[in-house]
Amino acid sequence: MAKVDVHCRYCHKSEDVKRHGKGNGGHSRYRCYACRKVFQLEYTYQACKPSVKEQIVDMAMNNGGIVIPPVY
Asked: CA-CA distance, 38 to 19, in Å (whole number)?
């Protein structure tokens, strides 16, 4: 069986990360005992990925994707 070295996405430590069951999509969840956060490496739903949240905040700050119709 292969060992996967998992790093915490919040504090970037690997020695304090342990498996913490499975998420709703069946993917493994991990818990970092250094910062006490729970995270997944894979997501079934793309909206749950951390990069999507960053993209939403970036678009909101730069008025991206918002079209204001002209008022007549």
From this structure: 9
* Domain that includes residue 3, residue range: 1-41
Look at the chain and report how many structural domains it folds into: 2
Are 23 and 53 in the same domain?
no
Tally Cβ neighbours within 10 Å of residue 32.
23
Q: Nearest 5°: CA angle at 15, between 12 and 19?
A: 90
Q: Are residues 35 and 6 in the same domain?
A: yes
pLDDT digits (tens, 9 = 90+) for 36-51: 999 998 877 777 777 8
17, 8 Cβ separation under 8 angstroms:
yes
Stated pTM of the model: 0.63
Three-state DSSP at 20 gives strand
* Average pLDDT score over the chain: 84
